[in-house]
């Protein structure tokens, strides 16, 4: 008949505070199990072993655990199983009996492993009481309180929590050469044992990465990969080349009002992703510019015409445009001479036109040398407008048309008045 003796089996366990990538468990989640720091959500394993290899006929005992722990199972290294009674909260009874074939622990000294999950913060405890361990030859490993072969040695077991997910704050990004972009990787679960992230680039000629900081090198595409454990996440970077300078074929331009000239813009470097430009003028009242770079003088003054890159680089080239007033080169009359009568055809109209057509000041001054002979309907007219000349008395007079733009250009109409 087997003796049944009580003896507390000295069991030590060890586990680690699970911290990854510089993060730590908050105070609200902190816990200890038998004085060892851990956290809510950690899995703790207790390994019970024989001090020396051997064969067993049977064993039995129980362990008590605090309310902050959840019992998840006991596993034998032998295949014959373990009987477990969970009817009493906080106490687990276990036993194993073999009559025909003994439990064989000659290859492995591990008797069984009990596993708990930490479900509440604070100090938690697990106490094991081994009641009997009998060798296959009838030898009691526990005999009258004497430890004749059960371990009092600590077996350290750290249960790692694997990484289940890696999420990046971006999955695609469009950037320009020379810029830096920081990617942030969130590793789950929170209690993963190792949250260390390894960063790699599929094309370092296009983009490099160090600790999540991506540096754009040259135009192209590169995939940045963040890997933790066996899980990874990627972000595709499209790198564009910004414009470094815009140059115009002219830096200064002289125009007369109404005249036009075309500017040409060259964008650098040659491999710029976008060479699109926008034309603008600093003073539309002086000079205008089209989307094709055609500049037109409007009125005398100075304006700057710019070609600006549309890629956001803010690079531009500009040309100083000076607009001068176009003066008349000629005054042309519809008639150079007319004959009037005091009775009958007493009046006639003369039209004056300034050349060229873009003369800035189109005003024409009208004068008559002998006001007693004829009279005029207006002292000033605009180019292409007419003045009415009326006979007053017999004689001969001259009506002069002079451009008022300072060119001193003029033309004269001779008027004869007959009876």
What share of residues is helical? under 10%
Class inferred from helices and paired strands: mainly beta
Describe the biggest sheet? 5 strands, antiparallel
| Quaternary structure state of the chains depicted | single chain
Q: How many E strands?
A: 40
| SS field, number of helical segments | 0
Average pLDDT for all residues: 83
Low-confidence segments, ≥5 residues, pLDDT <50? 1-28, 142-158
Give the CA-CA distance, first to last residue.
171 Å
Strand content: over 45%
Radius of gyration based on Cα positions? 52 Å
Overall outline = rod-shaped
In short:
With 419 residues, the chain is mainly β. Helix content is 0%, strand content 53%. The chain is built from no helices and 40 strands.
Written overview of the protein:
The chain has 419 residues and is mostly beta strands. It contains no helices and 40 strands. Strands 4, 6, 7, 8 and 11 form a five-stranded antiparallel sheet that branches. A five-stranded mixed sheet has the order 33-40-39-35-37, with no helix packed on it. Strand 30 and strand 31 form a beta hairpin. It starts with 29 loop residues before the first strand and ends with a strand.
């Amino acid at each position: 008949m087997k003796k049944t003796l009580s003896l507390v089996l000295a069991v030590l366990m060890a586990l680690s505070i699970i911290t990854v990538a510089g993060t730590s468990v908050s105070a609200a989640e902190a816990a200890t199990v038998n004085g060892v720091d851990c956290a809510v959500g950690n899995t703790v394993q207790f390994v019970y072993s024989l001090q020396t290899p051997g064969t067993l006929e049977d064993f039995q005992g129980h362990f008590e655990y605090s309310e902050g722990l959840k019992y998840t199972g006991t596993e034998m290294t032998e295949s014959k199983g373990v009987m477990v009674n969970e009817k009493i909260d906080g106490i687990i009874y276990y036993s194993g009996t073999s009559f025909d074939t003994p439990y064989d622990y000659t290859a492995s000294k591990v008797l069984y492993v009990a596993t708990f999950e930490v479900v509440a913060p604070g100090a938690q405890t697990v106490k094991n009481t081994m009641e009997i361990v009998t060798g296959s030859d009838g030898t009691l490993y526990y005999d009258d309180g004497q430890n004749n072969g059960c371990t009092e040695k600590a077996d350290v077991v750290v249960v790692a929590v694997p990484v289940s997910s890696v999420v990046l704050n971006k999955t695609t990004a469009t950037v320009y050469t020379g810029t830096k972009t920081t990617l942030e990787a969130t590793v789950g679960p929170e209690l993963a044992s190792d949250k260390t992230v390894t960063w790699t680039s599929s094309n370092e000629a296009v983009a490099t990465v160090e600790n999540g900081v991506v540096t754009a090198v040259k135009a192209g595409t590169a995939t940045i990969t963040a890997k933790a454990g066996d899980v990874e996440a990627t972000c595709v970077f499209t790198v564009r080349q910004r414009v470094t300078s815009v140059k115009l074929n002219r830096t200064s331009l002289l125009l007369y009002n109404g005249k036009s000239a075309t500017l040409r813009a060259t964008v650098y470097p040659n491999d710029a992703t976008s060479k699109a430009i926008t034309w603008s003028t600093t003073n539309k009242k002086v000079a205008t510019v089209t989307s094709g770079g055609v500049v037109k003088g409007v009125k005398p003054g100075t304006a700057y015409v710019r070609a600006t890159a549309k890629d956001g680089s803010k690079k531009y080239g500009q040309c100083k445009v000076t607009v001068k007033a176009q003066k008349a080169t000629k005054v042309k009359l519809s008639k150079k001479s007319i004959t009037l009568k005091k009775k009958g055809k007493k009046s006639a109209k003369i039209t004056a036109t300034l050349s060229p057509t873009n003369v800035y000041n189109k005003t024409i001054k009208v004068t008559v040398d002998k006001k007693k002979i004829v009279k005029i309907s207006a002292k000033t007219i605009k180019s292409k407008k007419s003045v009415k000349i009326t006979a007053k008395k017999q004689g001969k007079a001259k009506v002069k048309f002079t451009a008022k733009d300072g060119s001193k250009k003029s033309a004269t109409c001779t008027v004869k008045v007959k009876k």
